[in-house]
Amino acid sequence: MIMSKIHMVNLKDQYLKIKDQVDNAIIDVCEKTQFIKGPSVSRFERNLEQYLNVKHVIGCANGTDALQIALMALDLEPGDEVIVPAFTYVATAEVIALLHLKPVMVDVDPHTFNISLNNLDQVITDRTKVIVPVHLFGQCSDMESVMTFADNHKLYVIEDNAQAIGSDYTFSNGFVAKTGTIGHIGCTSFFPSKNLGCYGDGGAMFTNDEVLAQKLKMIANHGQKKKYHHSVIGCNSRLDSIQAAVLDIKLQYLDEYSEARNKVADVYDQAFSNIEEIKIPARYENSTHVFHQYTLRAPASDRDKLIEFLKAKEIPSGVYYPIPLYEQEAFRHFQEDDFALEVTAGLCQSVISLPMHTEMKSDEQDYIIKTVISYFNSKNIS
Fold first, then answer.
1. CA 204 – CA 218 distance, rounded (Å)
2. Per-residue model confidence as pLDDT tens digits over 334-344
3. Which residues contact 171 (CB under 8 A, 6 or more apart)?
4. Fold of the 11-251 domain
5. Has this prediction a pTM greater than 0.85?
6. CA-CA distance, 311 to 250, in Å (whole number)?
7. pLDDT tens for residues 247-266?
C-alpha cells in the first residue's frame, strides 16, 4: 500500500507549485480593491484571446451562465429546438429548458463519446435553430462535420468546451483551431477541477463575431451597453477579479498541464490496452486530447463491482454520467415514454473514470493500474 492518499484531482499540490505567483496575484487584487471588473479581468480576457486565437473572450460567473447567455444572444423564441447530446452533464440541456426552448437529445459516438452526426437529419424540424456539440472528457467533436451540417440547415453552433480547453482541432485542409473557437460561440467553465480552473466559480464565452460579442457582453451585464440604459433583458454574470487573477497565472501553465495529463493517459493506455474486458479511451485523429477525464469502458456487469473493488483499496473513481439526460425526471416530458438512445444508455452502464490530474505520481498510478488489473485477473481465475 502506498503512503499518500490518492485523489481524483490533486489541486493542492498543483497550487503549491505556483503558490507564490498565485498568492501575489490575489494580494495585488486585494490591495487595489477592484474586485469587480478590475484590471485582472480584462488582462486575463486579452491573454486568453491570444492563447485561443479568438477575437473576443467575455468572462462570466460560471460555465452554466456562459451557455445560457450564449443562447440568449441568438434571439430564439420559446419552443425553438436545440440539438444536444444525451451523454453530457445536465447543465448543457438545463439552460435550454430554462429558456423555454426544447432540448432535442441525440446519441453519441461509442468511441469518442462526442455527438454523433448519424441520423441527425431525422431530428431536424422547422423549429431547429441550434446545435450544441460537447467536447467531452477532453477532445474535440467532429467540428468540420458539425459546421457543414449546421451550414446546410442554417443552424447556430454553440460549443460546450468546459472539458476540452486547450485542445486543437485539425480540419481536412490542415487548418488548426482551438476548441471553443470554431462555432458561432464557445463556452467554458473554470470550475476548480477543470483543466483551467480557478479557486471558486468562473466561466467565459468566446466568439469571432463582433455583433455577437457585443450582445454577450450586454446580456451578461444586466442587458446594458451604457450604465443605466438597458437595451435587452439580461442577467448579472461576472468573472470576479480574484478568480481572473488566478486564471491568468494558471493559463501560463495550461499547455504544461495538458502535457502532464497526456503522460498519465499514455501510461494508462499502455497498461490497459491488452485487457480484453475493458476499452481504453479512443483518440480521435483530428483532435488532440487534454484528458479532463480518463474514462474506460468496462462490461456493465463489472463496472459497479470494479468501483467497489477500487474503493476498498482506497482508490477513488467516478461515473460521468450514470443516467442519460432523457431519463432524468426533469427532462422526461420532452420525449415519448419509450424514447431511448442505444449508445448513451450503454455508456451510462459501462463508463468508469480513473484518477487523472497534473500531479500524478508514478507510484500512485502504478498502484491504480495494478489494482484494476488484479480485479480482472481474479475474476478470470474464479
1. 14
2. 999 899 999 99
3. 143, 144, 177, 286
4. Aspartate Aminotransferase; domain 2 (3.40.640)
5. yes
6. 31
7. 999 999 999 999 999 999 99
